[in-house]
Amino acid sequence: MLRIVQVCPRYSPDVGGVETHVKEISERLVKMGHTVDVVTTDPTGKLQSKESINGVNVTRFRSIAPGNAYFLAPHIYSFLKKEEYDVVHAHSYHAFPALFAAFANPKGKFVFTPHYHRSGHTFLRNLLHKPYRLLGRSIFSKADVVICVSEYEKGLVSEDFDVGVKIEKIPNGINLSEFENIRPQNNENNEKILLYVGRLEEYKGVQYIIQSLQELPEFRLKIVGKGPYEDELRKLANQISVSDRIEWLQDISRDELLQCYASAGVFLMLSKHEAYGITVAEALGAGVPCIVAKGSALDEFVDGDTCRGMKLPIFQKQLTTEIESLTEETKLNVGMTKDMLMDWNEVTLKTENSYMSLRDSFNIKYQA
User: Fold this and answer.
1) 193 and 153 both lie in a single domain
2) Where are any strands of DSSP class E within 198-238?
3) Quick one: DSSP state of residue 254?
4) Which pTM value belongs to this model?
5) ∠ at Cα 256 (252, 258), nearest 5°?
6) Angle value at C-alpha 26, between 21 and 31, nearest 5 degrees
7) How do residues 11-67 score in pLDDT, each as one tens digit?
């Protein structure tokens, strides 16, 4: 079978969209008989430098990551330079590990999943994106195939880079079996619950959800995640006197997260930049109506009924009106919603097929 390396900025136990994507396909590829290594970074220095997680061999290098960005770890380049893989699959245009993987000039074929959303998350990062694009183009030019996770991302990549015919779409997935028996349910106190799941960054728009609590006295908010914007969000909650109606959750188990979905009345993701939106897919899979910000790949979930879209900037009155209308009127057909979502098993099979097409085209060493 194939010897594969996944190169990404962070990996489990870190959480996030890219982290979830790499973990889900890597563990399934191992079960399919492939050897899978993950080469990633650890800015904290607190995680093991080498370990095996569910059959995946993980190697972590210390990185410089100001503001949880960039993940500069040159040792990735030297590590990949001396290793031999059939497929090198790099993830995330917005961090340096993919660049090091591209320039390492591995003997195997190079696959790139950019998780690309064009602009940076802050004003400074946006400025840095312009000179970085010169380097970023080289990642695309060296890729034998570029895999995008949404039509939106595919469109951005096609507009901004010369990728030709080697681009394809394989969306992110969810574990559909986890949601088979989940139905929206009321909590013990019959409270109405708003839910956010994701990293705590300013661009994610959690501040708008917190502000909406001022006009929604019957609601509580669960925030699942952590990140550099947490302190600012807590300050905001204190300033507008809604802290007592917010529950902050970090590093919870998968079962606990599923329970959060099950008890939620509305899921919100008001992010400016998303290449896909895994937590939105999971919320819909759990039968929870969603409100998302328009202008990114989140648009692909919007149907005007089970998932509503709002134009940026978000205005508090419009948001509270939308929340109230969803909780009162929306009856989600869970079965129909799940039919629109892809399982990680199918995502992994499509990814493996992409690898195998490279083997067939470029004579990668392979043993059936």
Assistant:
1) no
2) 219-224
3) H
4) 0.88
5) 125
6) 135
7) 999 988 999 999 999 999 999 999 999 999 999 999 999 999 999 999 999 999 987
